[in-house]
Amino acid sequence: MISTKAMQTLRMLGAASAVALAMASGAVADGHGGKVKIGLITTLTGGGAALGVDIRDGFLLGIKQAGNEGIEVVVEDDQRKPDIAVQLADKMIQSEKVDIMTGIVWSNLALAVAPAATAQGKFYISPNAGPAQLAGKGCHENYFNVAWQNDGPHEAAGAHAKELGFKNPFILAPNYPAGKDALTGFKRTYAGDLAGELYTKLGQTDYAAEIAQIRASDADGIFFFLPGGMGISFLKQYADSGIDLPVVGPAFSFDQTILGAVGEAALGIHNTAQWSPDLDNAASKAFVESFKAEYGRIPSIYAQQAFDTANLIVSAAAKADVKDTDAFREALRAADFVSTRGDFKFGSNQHPIQDFYVREVIKDGDVFTNKIIGVALEDRQDVYAAECKL
Amino acid sequence: MTTLLLIEQILNGLQFGVMLFLMAAGLTLIFGVMGLINLAHGSLYMVGAFAAAAMAAWTGNFFLALVASLVAAAIVGALIELTVIRRLYERDHLDQVLATFALILIFSEATRWIFGSFPLFLNIPDVLKGTVTLPGGIEYSVYRLTIIVIGLAVAVGLFLLISKTRVGMRIRAGENDREMIAALGVDISVLYTMVFALGAALAGLSGALVGAIQSVEVGMGEPVLILAFVVIVIGGIGSIKGALAGAILVGLTDTLGRTLLPVVFGAFMDPSSATTVGSALASMLIYILMAGVLLFKPTGLFGSA
Amino acid sequence: MLRERYINILILAGLVLIPAYAYFAEEPFTITLATRAVIFALAGVGLNLALGQGGLVSFGHAAYFGMGGYAMGILASHAQNYEPIMEVPFLIEGTNSMPVIWLVAIVMSALLALVIGALSLRTSGVYFIMVTLAFGQMFYYFTISWPAYGGEDGLSIYVRNQFPGLNTLDPIQFFGICFVILLAVLFLVDRINKSPFGLALNGAHQQEERALTVGINVYRVRLVAFVISGAITGLAGALFADLNRFVSPTMFSWQISGEIMIFIILGGVARLFGPVAGAALYIVLEHFLGGLSEYWFIYLGAILLFVVLFAKGGIIGGLSKKETGRAG
Questions:
Q1: C-alpha–C-alpha distance, residues B84 and B193, integer Å
Q2: Membrane-crossing residues (chain C) (predicted)?
Q3: Fewer CB in 10 Å around end: N or C, chain C?
Q4: Which residues in chain A are contacts of B272 at CB distance < 8 A?
Q5: What confidence tier does A19 reach under pLDDT thresholds 50, 70, 90?
Q6: What is the mean pLDDT of chain B?
Q7: Shortest CA distance to C69 belongs to which of C32, C104, C118?
Q8: Do C309 and B237 make contact, defined as CB atoms within 8 angstroms?
């Protein structure tokens, strides 16, 4: 742990003496000399804290490894409440005078904070949430997303369902905007018949009724998007129901943060994501090793996304001064960093164009984790990019 | 929808109701005897689930885990009764609400501090895994049937405890006249601690039982707490019978609403908006039910004024 | 009595002087925090009328807070997109004028309080607490699953609404607006408390039997108080939405109902300035405890517990050394 304090001011000064500092800044003087202050708002208390903790840890690891003493990070906890997130954004911009904001886990919070940040001339670089509104008509030149547009993992699941030969799957998601986007995304690439389509209550924990409906239908497969505790509950209850249909889903219900709580019930399930801890490239392997060494656990996709976000910022800071907004934006757009997911580039709306992998849940010794078994979509760009006027 | 599926959904509703009853029983018992409204009941549910998960991880035995949930929740319950709750009996409901709300804040964050932010693992024991085929060809989870049986056993047990035993007699006496029972030489404060610990243990047990098929995480107690309040308000606060009736009514309404409403709306709407409108209405249904009951019976179905 | 008045003046002075200092020190975020305190205080003053004066423990005031927020969100989002709210049978357009939004927020939350109050006031005691909580939850789930205005995503309003002659985006000017409203409402509530109606309400709280025998229609008095209380909290909701330029279903969540109650208990129940002191203290605690530890809710819970158990009169009660509160 770097620190247990909610508000941490991480000054990357190390033990360097003034002389060493002067030499270091001299070394990069040809590129720029400015400092970068980053405000990281994420969820560190309450039910969704596991995701925020991974984002914070992944991000701070990336910054620490870069060793750039000109970069300072301020961390705050949004308690998963949009109004708190907006207040913190105001605080970071007005009092802390940050240049870049990042860190938010949830789409509804990002929708509250990102427009506020970009409207005040700051960069917002999303390490997770990618709501359609900010990818399409509401895109902004100072808004970048390093994770995915929200539909991406669901589209990949749809493509994989089609490839598996699903003819009549049953699909379900919670009744809120992200849930509707999930089913829309799945249907976009799957494009076949459905045995049924269900919206469950947000935060629902008992799925007996839904499982009975699945059993009674003539479905030949299941797609579900139930993030966090909802997914844990559904998977445990499904595993106990005796139904033996193949399940496909986005990575959110099969990720490192919750696999330990689901256990055997998740074994063998195919899920889709832009990354997996076993991805075969040097940057990813080094990241997984260093994350394990630092925090003693396998990183989740959230940690990986945040780590990439940190490295993107570091790469831009090496090229341009953040106060020169146009130059810094160009440096971000170039995405000139070694991503843990291999190839990485931004589309016209500043969201990634990337591969989505199919992963399978496996047991490695005592630990449940994922292993890549194929590629669901290659060089996928979100459909909203066309509506973005950048 | 076939008759068979409808019957299965009714069974699911019953089962959900019994799960709610386990939670509501302790809540209504504590209110009935001490007149205390305890928002921290959800925290005791969480304590039970976490204790069970920790014990299961340590020993690998689910039944020891259930024992751990009972013991841990009872001990924690007794501790907060001795330190905080007993100062609240003579206070008004506002103070009780706020003090126990404060306890929720403390319990949630303390649990996260001890166990971390990640959900814990707790699974069904092997003997209770899988399904059985009921008459009529319904395949039903053995574990869920077990929950129904345990829930009904708890209902019967509580009923017998209160109506047939000496402790129960004192509890009933305490409900009616605190001064009188104290004057008769019964140590009322010991009795109260015991009742509170019993209610807490029930909450802990239901947390562990439900935790095995749901998610053991910080904050798991609050949604179910609110449902349990709806249950006891519908049933009549303080009445075990009312809690059972209310729980089953809420379980059935919620389960059947969730499955039937989208079908009903589908009859005259396109499928996609029917699911949206149907599920939106279904999520409000139990609150509408509660408002309806109180409109005709302001003290709930089995409550006394 | 006199001492409490001095304390009240001190609280008000603090609420003016801190943002004024922040303005000159160029600390705009402190002004934002003070604005937040003032708006929470307003919501608390609203609830205090029902809870403190009338003894009606509503655990569902988030419903009115959210309703006010959504009145602002819906009107402003339509104005932002230039789409009328409805055209048949008559045209209703969105607006970004604060006074109009406030009026709509007050009327809508008063109507909601009328319906909820008329039903809930048939019950009493714990039933009342739980019924109001259930109504709040009903609206919470409704707004999450109702797609027209963003569902759980909520609604972002990019520019703060306008007030004639002022630049509302300037933190200190927006603070001024909120502060003046708080003063006006405090004055109004003070008058209500001292009026025959207020005495009847308090009488019905302290001695219901006696109020009935002297011919007070207790149900109606309580309903009127509940409606005024909801309307004030609704107005606070509209201001809160404007402060954040954002509304979402979290404004309806039961935690918000709990927080509004906390303001009252921290400050002192049934004291005119109780919620003001309580909200200010809450913001201070949130700000400083949040900086101390990731687990700051433990400390907040402990402080709250201490106040409920041992410091019955809240801050004002503690400072004026007077246990029982009476508004005025």
A1: 11
A2: 7-24, 30-50, 62-80, 100-119, 126-149, 169-189, 219-240, 260-285, 297-319
A3: N
A4: 197
A5: very low
A6: 88
A7: C104
A8: no
Q: Which helix (H) or strand (E) holds C20?
A: helix C2-24
Query: Which whole number is the average pLDDT over A48-52?
Result: 85
The domain ranges of chain B are: 10-219
**Do A8-148+278-346 and A151-273+356-387 agree at the fold level?**
yes
Residue-wise pLDDT for A102-142, tens only, equals 999 998 899 889 988 998 889 999 999 899 889 998 899 99
Give residue-wise pLDDT tens across range B90-124.
Answer: 888 888 999 999 999 999 989 988 988 788 888 88
Find how far residue B174's CA is from the centre of its chain.
23
Query: CA A135 to CA A389: how far, in whole Å?
Result: 10
Q: Which of C68, C140, A79, A84 is nearest to B284 (CA)?
A: C140
**3-state class of C2 per DSSP?**
helix
Domain boundaries, chain A: 8-148+278-346, 151-273+356-387
Chain A, chain B: beta-carbon pairs less than 8 Å apart? 134
Question: Which CATH number is correct for A151-273+356-387, 3.60.110.10, 3.20.20.150, 3.30.43.10, 3.40.50.2300?
Answer: 3.40.50.2300
Residues 6+ apart with CB under 8 A from B54: B68, B115, B120
Distances (CA, A) of B167 to B33, B73, B285: 12, 21, 39
ipTM exceeding the 0.90 mark: no
Question: How many domains is chain C partitioned into structurally?
Answer: 1
| A116 inside 8 A of chain C by CB | yes
The DSSP H or E segment spanning A273 is: strand A270-273
DSSP string, A14-57: TT--HHHHHHHHHHTTTT----EEEEEEE--SSTTHHHHHHHHH
Is the Cβ–Cβ distance between C201 and C53 less than 8 Å? yes
Question: Closest Cα partner for C305 from B98, B267, A73?
Answer: B98
Domain that holds residue C9: 2-320
**The two three-digit tokens of residue B92, written as one number:** 């008004």
Count each helix (H run) and each strand (E run) in chain B, helices first. 11, 2
Rounded Cα distance, B104 and B110, in Å: 10
Name which of B15, B23, B12 is nearest B224 in CA terms. Answer: B23
C-alpha Rg value of chain A to the nearest Å: 21
Tell me the C-alpha distance between B208 and B122, whole Å. 8
Cβ within 8 Å of residue B158, ≥6 positions away: B25, B29, B240
Please indicate if any CB of chain A lies within 8 Å of the CB of B198.
Answer: no
Q: A23 — contact with chain C (CB < 8 Å)?
A: no
C-alpha to C-alpha distance for C102 and A244, rounded to whole angstroms: 56
- Contact state of C131 with B280 under an 8 Å Cβ cutoff: no
| pTM given for the model | 0.86
How many other C-beta atoms can be found within 10 angstroms of the C-beta atom of residue A103? 32
Question: How many other C-beta atoms can be found within 10 angstroms of the C-beta atom of residue C62?
Answer: 32
- The arrangement of secondary structure in A8-148+278-346, i.e. its CATH architecture, is 3-Layer(aba) Sandwich (3.40)
How far, in Å, are A121, B165, B224, B285 from residue B42 at the CA level?
44, 28, 7, 22
User: What is the CATH number for C8?
Assistant: 1.10.3470
Maximum mean pLDDT: which of A20-29, C142-151, C287-296: C142-151
Q: Does the pLDDT value for residue C29 go beyond 50?
A: yes
Interface contact flag, B12 A233, Cβ < 8 Å: no
Query: How confident is the model at residue B172, as a pLDDT?
Result: 76
Residue C325 lies in a domain: no
Residues B101 and B39: beta-carbon distance below 8 Å: yes
Query: In 3-state terms, what secondary structure has residue B165?
Result: coil
Please state, in angstroms and rounded to a whole number, the distance separating the CA atoms of residues C234 and B175.
Answer: 40
d(Cα B228, Cα B234) in Å, to the nearest integer?
A: 10
Q: Chain C: nearest CA to B99, how far in angstroms?
A: 5
